[in-house]
Amino acid sequence: MGIPTNIKTLMYGAVVEWARIEYKKSWDAATSLKTVCAFANDIDNWGGGYIVIGVKEQDGRPVFPLEGLPAAQIDNIQNAIYHKGYDEREPVEVRVLPDRIEIVSHPGADRSVSIEGLQQYKVFNRRYRNRRIGEFLKEMRLTEGRNTGFRKIINALEHNGSPLPIFETDENRLSFSVTIYQHPEFTGNGLNNGING
Question: For residue 107, is the peptide bond before it cis, meaning its omega torsion is within 30 degrees of 0?
Fold first, then answer.
């Protein structure tokens, strides 16, 4: 059986969760990265698979209403998967804190990316750590592989009125982190638009 390429078929059709389709309520780095690696290895030569994040599943079927994830968070997670050094045993960390989301991957940015460039949002790098995972993400139309990730993240946050992210790496390039702060009008009970008090 071929893998459906239409999201409506995945979400509304009679497709159940099987070896190449997984629904996940939220991003969990450990289990998601294992699945991405399995899809990239493609031992059975099925041509990849789908991880549908933001969708709770029950008995292999999506549970409605769908939960979803913010666009900037999705782009950051994709970048962390794409650029992670899989020769290191450290997982991609996604920390959801009361006022921000932090995504940390190991190792840090390539030496061709300067710390000053990260701080000024001027990043250009043509070195790929994970070509196979990059090809997989491109085939799934989850990334372009043309150095557009940083710009897409910044544009999504600006469009939403959110603060700009902080991209950081250390001099030894041991880790790379992205911090996304909550929208200034967001409170623990939702948007502060006069409705919630």
Answer: yes
